[in-house]
Structure formats: C-alpha cells, structure tokens
Design brief:
Elements lengths: L2 E7 L4 E2 H10 L8 E8 L6 E6 L10 H20 L3 E7 L4 E7 L4 H9 L5 E6 L2 E7 L2 H7 L6 E10 L14 E2 L7 E8 L2 H10 L9 H14 L4 H11 L2 E8 L3 E6 L8 E4 L3 E5 L2 H5 L16 E5 L1
Antiparallel strand pairs: 1-9, 1-15, 2-9, 3-8, 3-9, 4-6, 4-7, 5-6, 10-11, 11-12, 12-13, 13-16, 14-15
Helix pairs in contact: 2-3, 5-6, 6-7
C-alpha cells in the first residue's frame, strides 16, 4: 500500500514544493519508508538541472571510509563532467551524498548520463530543463525540509510515499523514477506488475538501464522506450494499459503535462479533482483537501482510463 499524488496548474506557477509536501504528508499512513518528489520548475534557456547522489542515506553511518569514498566519487563525477565538455553554472549540496547541478551542454545526453553513472556509487536521479527529482528515507515533511523544497516555484509535480514490500528500503528503490534518458519525464506508481521480469529483460536487450529491482521503474523505462519509438505521451500510456499486466495506477509527468493511467481492473485507488485552473490527483481525497480545505467535488477515474492534462 503506497500513496501517490499529482498536481498541475494551468497557465501559472505556484509553490508546488509546499503543495506536494502537504499532499504527501497527508498520505504518510500509506507509506512510511520513503518519500519522493518530482517537481517541475520554470526552465532557463540553455540550461539543465541534474540531481544525483553518490551514496545511500544508510551508507553514511558506516564511518570514515564511506565519507572519504563519497568525497572521491563526487570528485570523479566533476572530472567526468569536465571531460564531456559540461559547463557547470551552479553546484548545490542538499546532503553529504546528494547534489544539485545547473549546467549547459550541447552533446549526447545519454552518453553523458552513462559516463557519470559509470562512477561506482553514483546515480543520476534526474536530468531536465524543468524537472527536479528528490527522494529519500522518511516522511514528506522530513524530506521536504532536508532538501529545502518549500517555496519551490513551478507548474506541476508528482510524488510518492512508499511502503516497501518486494524491494529494499533505500533511495534507489524509492519513487519517483526518471524515464532515463529522457529529459523531464518521471513516473510514480501504486500496484504490482506481474510481467515485470519479462518486460525488463526485453527493455535491457534494447539498451535501457535499470537502477533498482522495483517494478515501478519498469513503467518509466517503458514510457521512455515508447517515446523513443515515436509515441506521444498519451499514446504510450494507452499502450501500457494493454501491455503491462497486473493491478496498477500510475502518474507520469513531462515538461508540460501530467498524465494518469489505471489498469482495466481499477483495483488501485485514485481520486481526481479538476477545475479550469488546477488538477489534483491522489490515492485518497484527504491529500487533495490538504491544499483545498473548502468543499470540492472529486470523483474516481474509471477502469482502463488514461488522461493527460497540459500545463
């Protein structure tokens, strides 16, 4: 039992960091192990934002050796970025193991990401013009404060509270997942895919990489694969309902859109609120009411439904 949430403002920016924190905090009973955010800010022309980590939170308790290793890994990442011709405009360190870089680059983004992740212990959480993906252990308010998400201005966001069932309690297994190597594509998911291993092996044969054993990551990779083949977002999502087996509800976000898909059995909950200016979705209505305390009308999407909203 996990909790997912999404929101999108049409034609304006808002404090999506605080809004998503409130939504996810209201869902903490659905998943106390970790919390993740995919926040979409206002892009700057010619610049990308990369969120990456060089260790897990739990690693940092092991003593001096791991602390020195973390320093060495970051130095190797910096060296590889320089070697690839990346111009880093700004560096920020959220935690000892988690970093945020703003940079410009006009080369092959897949090659860049592969080169960085070839550093032992390094994992890119996201690269995008607007997307910033943040996830860590703990409930929403803890993670939000740790990464200073309050006041984050943007148009839309998705988020996740996780209860670990079939994979480890670590950042690698937490949601959201970036649809590597596509800029600004992210996914959160509640459910279970029964054809996970079959599809994973197929995706790996096509050259896609997986950083976890979580079945939710497959949806992100699947969407990336379909978009690489020429599908638009809605077409890729509709195809996923037919091809991915199991019970699932998932949200996917791109630079300018938010999408929702439910499997044909509709076993995993989703509540929707929509107005002319705003769309909010969550596993429970309480999450939407955390930012709209007044009387609102919500409804449940039907089985097999796919919806996409533009910012």
């Amino acid at each position: 039992m996990c909790g997912i949430a999404g929101l999108i403002h049409r034609g304006k920016s808002s404090d999506v960091g605080s809004e998503m924190t409130a939504m996810l905090q209201s869902l903490k009973h659905r998943g106390p192990d970790s919390t993740g955010f995919a926040l979409y800010g206002n892009p700057t022309e010619g610049q990308y934002i990369m969120r990456f980590k060089v260790a897990e939170q739990e690693d940092m308790k092991r003593g001096f050796d791991i602390h020195q290793a973390v320093i060495d890994r970051k130095a190797k990442v910096d060296s590889r970025l320089e070697e690839m011709g990346v111009k880093v405009v700004k560096k920020e360190q959220a935690t000892e193991y988690s970093h945020r870089y703003i940079f410009s680059f006009d080369g092959d983004m897949r090659r860049l990401a592969d080169f960085v992740e070839d550093v032992e212990g390094a994992e890119i959480l996201s690269i995008g013009k607007g997307l910033e993906l943040i996830k860590d252990l703990g409930e929403a308010t803890v993670v939000s404060e740790q990464y200073s998400l309050s006041g984050f201005q943007g148009t839309h966001a998705i988020g996740h509270t996780r209860m670990a069932t079939e994979s480890d309690v670590d950042i690698r297994s937490a949601h959201p997942y970036w649809a590597y190597p596509f800029n600004d594509v992210s996914v959160v998911h509640n459910g279970q895919l029964t054809n996970y291993w079959t599809f994973r092996r197929e995706m790996e044969r096509r050259g896609h990489r997986f950083m976890s054993d979580c079945d939710s990551e497959l949806i992100a990779v699947y969407i990336a694969d379909r978009m690489e083949a020429g599908d638009d977002l809605e077409s890729a999502m509709k195809r996923s309902v037919d091809e991915l087996d199991g019970v699932f509800t998932y949200l996917v976000a791109t630079s300018d859109a938010l999408g929702m898909a439910k499997d044909v059995m509709a076993a995993k909950p989703m509540v929707l609120y929509e107005s002319d200016e705003f769309v909010g979705l969550a596993s429970e209505e309480v999450a939407i009411r955390s930012i709209f305390p007044n009387e609102i009308k919500t409804w449940d999407p039907y089985e097999g439904e796919v919806r996409v909203w533009q910012a």
